[in-house]
Predict the structure.
Amino acid sequence: MSEGLVEALGLAVEYDGRRVIDGVSLRAEPGQVVAVVGPNGAGKTTLLRALAGLVAASGELRIAGADPRAASARTNARRRAYCAQKPVCAWDYRVRDLGEIVGAPDAYAECLTRLSLADLTDRRLTQLSGGEQKAAFLAMTFAALAEPFGAALLLDEPAASLDVARQALVAAEIRRFVQAGGTAIVATHDLSFARSCDLVVVLAEGRLTAAGDPSTALTPDVIAATWGASAQAEA
Amino acid sequence: MTATRATLAGLAGLAALVALALSVGAQGFGWGDGGAWALLRAPRVLAALAAGLALGVGGAAQQGVFRNPLADPGLTGVFGGALFGIALLLGVAPEAAWQRAWCLPAAAFAGALGTSALLVFCGRGGSSARLLLTGLGLNALTAAGTLVIASRSGESRELLTNGAYGDWLGMATFELTWLPILLCLAATLLLLPSARALDLLAFGEDAARGFGIDVSGARRDAVLLTALAAAAATCLVGQVAFIGLLAPHLARRIVGPRHAWALPGSAFLGAALLLGADTLGRGLWPQAPLSAAAVTAVLGAPLFIWIARGRHE
């Protein structure tokens, strides 16, 4: 079996003595989009931050063959990029500034075009809608990994606050990234999007309750056990 | 081309301001006798320029580190800490304070660093309000400490009181100011390369670390250098609030919020504002000049209220 691009074994995170991620193991190969799903408070965001090496975690963890917790921030930045669910910015930068700040203005400009934001480059962030801001931050994250091969994208609710058209554009951008040899791990509440992914990981109360391809991980029984019977009807 | 023209216009404006500042003496405007303007006024002008550079860039750096446009080292207790450090040295070992050129700057740096460390420790992870309240508390504490020491030390009382009112520029001589001026320049030059880290810190700690910034290291460097800038500027002027607020605010308005431009822009505007305030205070009332700190407070306090009103926290 080939080496996974992202590998976690028995990953655990504690906040104030409480285990919010409890022994999660997962493995993502190059070319795969992995959906992390689960109810509110299941630990999706914490899992993504732990995989990115942004929060103290015990257990084994490897991204591109190396433990991000032992690598410098600069080295990690070449191996993975992380975009929060609700990105914030203290200063009112222009949209085009983000590419220069992240050190990849050309890749960022191309990504803005693909995400249908090319007309907004001279606007300030406060002049954008919430969805446009989120898309600009996502473009910044995509651009940061100028070489997708062997790198991992960790996206927390990338579709949140985006309209359906831009959700499709972002999904296409994620697929484009993994087709170039990267891996994307995406926390999402959107089970339709999760069904389009290569692998689904279901979390509940910090524990992995199901994992596999969408047809095996998102069965009616798993959905009912994770979200309740009403969700099963919705799904 | 526009940026080049703006830079040249700014430099020409600053040169005109320097000429104006050199022409203001105790009798009002005029060049005085012989070389008097050079011997008496040039150290004061150089000290105001250097301190203004440090205050402007220090304010922009502290605002970048705390992601807060109201984080002026003059309001968050860092300048107060620097003056308290000086007061402590003058109170405990007054004869040692003047033995070596580095004694007062070192005491000011220790005081500024102490308050910076407390500010980071008590204010981190909290809201803007928590940071500013912590800073205001530190400001009050260090001011009280300085006044207590001043009231107990007969010889240094006037000196420390003048320092608390930001009224030390009038004492500037080349002998007293050469080291703090060099330290102001060093702090300014060393803070400029932190522009990228400060740009990315704007997106929060996770994002900055995610994009490859050693957040702890960047914060530590910026806090240390801001403390150095505050200490060196305090040795030259005393306690001056609002330059660290006014200069970055105006710089971001003119050149945008990117720190590659905002840091040098804040340094430049800080120098121009402090020299302009000192010149205004001396030029309008030559017999009883207003301190630079009083003039900047008149300009800065309304701006502080205006910025605070615009924030949603």
Notes: The mean pLDDT of chain B is 86.
